[in-house]
């Protein structure tokens, strides 16, 4: 196990009826809250009214219209409102996109040195010294953004989708009330299962690192998602099941399971390009790329593939090679069983130059060696993307 330092300051407030208590967690002295949300799902499912009711003692200004895969351009409009209204606290009410938008917004508001896009583009996320505090009300279990300091923002003008993050981007609190899952379309539920599942694989499916506890945390999340994923799809109104689902998604990316172990994240980096280019849902890009990345990087990942196959899928027959292969196929079947398609051509016909476009972008950004060993070269990226068409 490698050395590590674990710090996570987000207060996680879990359970039924916690929406009604959101005001308890707003920092003392707050006057003007900017409530940021998406395209209106919270108005249809009652979350908006409940949260607004709970915050009746505060001056709350709405900012709606954050898109899935939040746009820099829209967040900059929110920044103008925040400055004009003297906002001293931000409340994100939504899924990963709304939360990620607020992470950028909170550091962009006080940033005056240059265009706030530089925070992302020039990697200043860890250097910024000021941020407006924010909390979240999660409405879509998937990304883990509610308890981490990362964010992914898209710039419409250049079709770039880039991640950034820093210590000031942890939410002060996040409210996880499982009742919110009831209104989610099935598409978003299966996206959530797939995203969380792949988050675990990015931090687990690397090489053995003498970290048996992290391995078992990871396998526990995978096994729980396999068990309850279909139950959530069948019964999104069952708060017992959906609460466990929420907790899996948070635990998959709140920093715990990555401590002391190597991590990959190349599936995400390639996947983000597919969303930027074709607007394919984030989770679906992972189901497209992940299995092909495991095929191309098979030798690197074989030992962990065997362990994952044995412990999560009960694959015990055959040689190590055969077990590792069967594990990849079983993972693809899992995605298919939830209705997730795993080829780029299932989503777009406009894919003739996709591998070249992605490798050129990576070359420009000097992303020349990705993955846990830094050996996913541009040639390997090209091979993975071509296999995925
Ligand atoms: O906009 P509204 O009307 O709210 O509708 C949303 C949106 O259309 C809807 N929705 C959310 N909660 C709902 C609901 N509909 C009905 N009932 C509810 N309770 O769902 C749609 C998708 O929402 P979105 O927030 O885009 O989905 P998700 O949570 O999957 O977030 C995806 C974004 O997060 C980034 C992705 O790249 C993508 O931009 N990620 C962020 C990460 C992080 N910060 O740690 C890690 C992830 O790997 C990921 O990259
Ligand atoms: Zn993800």
Automatic annotation (TrEMBL):
<dbReference type="Pfam" id="PF00465">
    <property type="entry name" value="Fe-ADH"/>
</dbReference>
<dbReference type="InterPro" id="IPR001670">
    <property type="entry name" value="ADH_Fe/GldA"/>
</dbReference>
<dbReference type="GO" id="GO:0005829">
    <property type="term" value="C:cytosol"/>
</dbReference>
<dbReference type="InterPro" id="IPR044731">
    <property type="entry name" value="BDH-like"/>
</dbReference>
<comment type="similarity">
    <text>Belongs to the iron-containing alcohol dehydrogenase family.</text>
</comment>
<dbReference type="InterPro" id="IPR018211">
    <property type="entry name" value="ADH_Fe_CS"/>
</dbReference>
<keyword id="KW-0560">Oxidoreductase</keyword>
<dbReference type="GO" id="GO:1990002">
    <property type="term" value="F:methylglyoxal reductase (NADPH) (acetol producing) activity"/>
</dbReference>
<dbReference type="GO" id="GO:1990362">
    <property type="term" value="F:butanol dehydrogenase (NAD+) activity"/>
</dbReference>
<dbReference type="Pfam" id="PF25137">
    <property type="entry name" value="ADH_Fe_C"/>
</dbReference>
<protein>
    <submittedName>
        <fullName>Iron-containing alcohol dehydrogenase</fullName>
    </submittedName>
</protein>
<dbReference type="GO" id="GO:0046872">
    <property type="term" value="F:metal ion binding"/>
</dbReference>
<feature type="domain" description="Fe-containing alcohol dehydrogenase-like C-terminal">
    <location>
        <begin position="191"/>
        <end position="386"/>
    </location>
</feature>
<feature type="domain" description="Alcohol dehydrogenase iron-type/glycerol dehydrogenase GldA">
    <location>
        <begin position="9"/>
        <end position="178"/>
    </location>
</feature>
<dbReference type="GO" id="GO:0008106">
    <property type="term" value="F:alcohol dehydrogenase (NADP+) activity"/>
</dbReference>
<dbReference type="InterPro" id="IPR056798">
    <property type="entry name" value="ADH_Fe_C"/>
</dbReference>
């Amino acid at each position: 196990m490698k050395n590590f330092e674990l710090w996570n300051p987000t207060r996680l407030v879990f359970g039924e009826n916690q929406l009604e208590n959101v005001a308890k967690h707003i920092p003392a002295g707050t006057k003007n809250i900017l409530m940021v949300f998406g395209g209106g799902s919270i108005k249809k499912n009652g979350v908006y009214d409940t949260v607004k009711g709970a915050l009746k003692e505060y001056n709350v200004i709405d900012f709606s219209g954050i898109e899935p895969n939040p746009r820099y351009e829209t967040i900059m409009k929110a920044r103008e409102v925040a400055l004009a209204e003297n906002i001293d606290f931000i409340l994100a009410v939504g899924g990963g996109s709304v939360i990620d938008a607020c992470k950028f917004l909170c550091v962009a508001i006080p940033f005056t040195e240059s265009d706030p896009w530089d925070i992302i583009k020039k990697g200043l996320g860890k250097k910024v010294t000021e941020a407006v505090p924010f909390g979240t009300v999660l409405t879509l279990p998937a990304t883990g953004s509610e308890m981490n300091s990362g964010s992914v923002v898209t710039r419409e003008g250049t079709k770039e989708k880039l991640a950034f993050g820093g210590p000031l981007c942890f939410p002060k609190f996040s409210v996880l009330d499982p009742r919110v899952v009831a209104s989610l379309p099935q598409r978003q539920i299966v996206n959530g299962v797939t995203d969380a599942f792949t988050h675990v694989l990015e931090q687990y499916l690397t090489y053995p690192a003498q970290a048996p506890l992290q391995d078992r945390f990871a396998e526990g999340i995978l096994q729980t998602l396999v068990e309850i994923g279909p139950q959530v799809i069948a019964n999104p109104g069952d708060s017992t099941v959906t609460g466990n689902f929420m907790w899996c998604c948070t635990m998959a990316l709140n920093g715990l399971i990555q401590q002391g172990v190597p991590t990959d994240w190349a599936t995400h980096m390639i996947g983000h390009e597919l969303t930027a280019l074709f607007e394919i849902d984030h989770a679906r890009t992972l189901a497209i790329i992940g299995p092909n990345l495991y095929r191309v990087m098979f030798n690197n990942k074989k030992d962990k593939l065997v362990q994952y196959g044995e412990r999560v899928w009960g694959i015990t027959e055959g040689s190590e090679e055969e077990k590792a292969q069967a594990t990849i196929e079983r993972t693809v079947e899992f995605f298919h069983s939830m209705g997730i398609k795993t080829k780029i051509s299932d989503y777009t016909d406009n894919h003739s130059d996709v591998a070249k476009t992605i490798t050129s972008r990576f070359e420009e950004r000097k992303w020349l060696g990705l993955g846990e060993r830094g050996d996913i070269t541009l040639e390997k990226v090209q091979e993975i993307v071509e296999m995925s068409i």
